[in-house]
Amino acid sequence: MASTSLICDTQPWKDLKAHTEDIKKTHLRDLMNDKERCESMMVEFDGMFLDYSRQCATLETIDKLYKLAEAASLKQQINRMYSGEHINSTENRSVLHVALRAPRDAVINSDGKNVVPDVWNVLDKIKDFSEKVRNGSWVGATGKPLKDVIAIGIGGSFLGPLFVHAALQTDPEAVEFAKGRQLRFLANVDPIDVARNIAGLNPETTLVVVVSKTFTTAETMLNARTLREWISSALGPSAVAKHMVAVSTNLTLVEKFGIDPNNAFAFWDWVGGRYSVCSAVGVLPLSLQYGFSIVEKFLKGASSIDEHFRSAPFEKNIPVLLGLLSVWNVSFLGYPARAILPYSQALEKFAPHIQQVSMESNGKGVSIDGVPLPYEAGEIDFGEPGTNGQHSFYQLIHQGRVIPCDFIGIVKSQQPVYLKGEVVSNHDELMSNFFAQPDALAYGKTAEQLLKENVSQHLIPHKLLASYEHRVTVEGFVWGINSFDQWGVELGKSLATQVRKQLNASRTKSEPVEGFNFSTTTLLTRYLQASSDIPAEPPTLLPRI
Ligand SMILES: O=P(O)(O)OC[C@H]1O[C@](O)(CO)[C@@H](O)[C@@H]1O
């Protein structure tokens, strides 16, 4: 395609538009009776089993979607990503999170340089450091082992690591490695989050990891200063060297903050924040909690999907199929939302993480060349683990609106329970719901007959993660947008800077609120008035719980 042309001007897009009318006349119940169709809508790779037969699509739809992919040069776009081209053109950067989990001997170039050795240097450094902390050869300022970790970070410097931590918390092997240790995440600038994080912790035995790609994010830096004060007021300023380390691409600012660059773990501008869980962003805190060997397994799983995404033909390529179906649902069937429904409590933080990966990536109104899009891109992602969601928002999906759902099932529970006298194990009970709900949605009242279907096979978080990352990429490539920048978010940040300046000026010099619209001026003024009697407290006076 020419650089300013849009995918909606291509014949495959127009064909799909026309085809939508036929599909709308078809009931999913009838589509589900076509065994041949259903069989061809099941794909398996390395322990993952995808069944997309409950999508409102026929084999003809899928064929037309492949043609759309061709028109969007999807294969070439994927190749460009893997070969380190600057596909994040607005920021003039490669997009190479796949290099973070590549095997040691892989070659992945960015700007003519193989980045894999750099990746492994950092991984080796993390392995070494986390082992020292875990075995007590790296101790705190008073000689005590550091058994608790607070990771400070927000957005991509928080959600991915939190998702993996939540998934590992009940994994029997990981639990053994984590004995006697705690990992907490401090994200919100709300002082309540600080209070909750330090509750019950002793600075003497706490290691703080400041995680920020830019090392400029206002919330993270204030939280970092707050915990620096918490440590130095208790143990003296020199204790910071033993109790604070950093993960960042900006090592200059790390040093300026007062963290020894030797205790900083680097990553690179070719890693987007929301794609950074496999960099030191996730690997460091998780290795401190569970040991590097557990985290390495995670990287290997993601790498397996990376290879699959790069090389599998589209009809067997799980992220490509997921991406094309999402485009179909959003841009052709007009369904703006998507529910992510893992039937696994261990995946409780998966939907919030994917929310950022997907919505910050593809929530765009212009094409990569700056042309306003005459079609919707991105979707509203939300979700909860089953069965909890069933008792919350499922009713609307059953009878209110059509919302495409990702049902994610796990074959083996991390913590199997089978009570004597019960008909099924607790996990079977969970999975009964997993099998029932998609059919209840597809068929209405005939769900009972379909409970016997075996939809899912073994599924593990690292593969799930990489598959979803690549799905977002596929959608972005087809929609012709840049999935790797986030200018909307940047606008919010600069407006917050203006507000911060105003609050400071009003509080310290009684300057009136100016330069904002009527509504914001009113609200700011009222806020300043109502909070004027709150005394300034040094961070050391934060409540100790
Ligand atoms: O890691 P940093 O630089 O602190 O940024 C945190 C988050 O802020 C954003 O830039 C915008 O919210 C995200 O993309 C990023 O994950």
From TrEMBL:
It is an enzyme of class 5 (isomerase). Pathway: Carbohydrate degradation; glycolysis; D-glyceraldehyde 3-phosphate and glycerone phosphate from D-glucose: step 2/4. SUPFAM superfamilies: SIS domain. It is found in: Cytoplasm. It holds the Pfam family PGI. The keyword Kinase does not apply. This is Glucose-6-phosphate isomerase. Its EC number is 5.3.1.9. PANTHER family: GLUCOSE-6-PHOSPHATE ISOMERASE. InterPro entries: G6P_Isomerase (IPR001672), G6P_Isomerase_C (IPR023096), Phosphoglucose_isomerase_CS (IPR018189), SIS_dom_sf (IPR046348), SIS_PGI_1 (IPR035476), SIS_PGI_2 (IPR035482). Homodimer. GO terms for cellular component: cytosol. Coiled coil: none annotated. GO terms for molecular function: carbohydrate derivative binding; glucose-6-phosphate isomerase activity; monosaccharide binding. Belongs to the GPI family. Its main location: cytoplasm. It catalyses: alpha-D-glucose 6-phosphate = beta-D-fructose 6-phosphate. Signal peptide: none annotated.
